[in-house]
Amino acid sequence: MESNYHTLKRTDNQLLVITHLSQLLTYVTGFGGLIAPLIIWATQKEQVDGMDAHGKSILNFQLSMLVYSLISIPLIFIVGLGILTLILIAILAFVMPIVNAIKASNGELPSYPLSLNFIS
C-alpha cells in the first residue's frame, strides 16, 4: 500500500526572503508587518525547510517591537525619552528584516536582537 504522505520539506530560500521582507509592509501600508509573515509562516511551516524557525523568529521580533513601542508611548509624556526609543525601534524594525532576508538567501538562520521569546 503506497502512502501519499511526504515528510520531506522543500528548500525555498526565496520564500524565506519574502517572509522577512514582508515585515516592511508596515512602512508601505501602515500595517501588515505582523500579519503577512504570520500568514506565510502558518501556511508554509510544514512544507518549507526552515520556515518554522524563520517564522517564529520574525513573529517574536515583531511582537517584541510592538511591546517596546507600547512601552515607549507613555515615556513620551513622562520624560520625552519615548520619542528617541520609538525612532530607534523604527530603525531596528526597518534594518533587521533586510539583514535577515540576506541571511535567509544565503541559507543562514536569522538573528533578531532584543527579541522576546513569545513563540518557541
> What oligomeric state do the depicted chains represent?
single chain
- Gyration radius (Cα, Å) is 16 Å
Q: Secondary-structure element sequence?
A: HHHHH
Helix segment tally: 5
Beta-strand residue fraction: under 5%
DSSP, total strands: 0
The biggest sheet, with number of strands, parallel, antiparallel or mixed sense and barrel status, is: none
Stretches with pLDDT under 50, minimum 5 residues = none
Structural account:
The chain has 120 residues and is mostly helical. The protein has one domain (13-105). It has helices at 13-21, 25-29, 35-44, 51-78, 81-105. Helix 4 (51-78) runs antiparallel to helix 5 (81-105). The radius of gyration is 16 Å and the shape is elongated.
Task: Please render the helix and strand layout as text.
Elements (H helix, E strand, L loop, with lengths): L12 H9 L3 H5 L5 H10 L6 H28 L2 H25 L15
What structural keywords apply?
mainly alpha
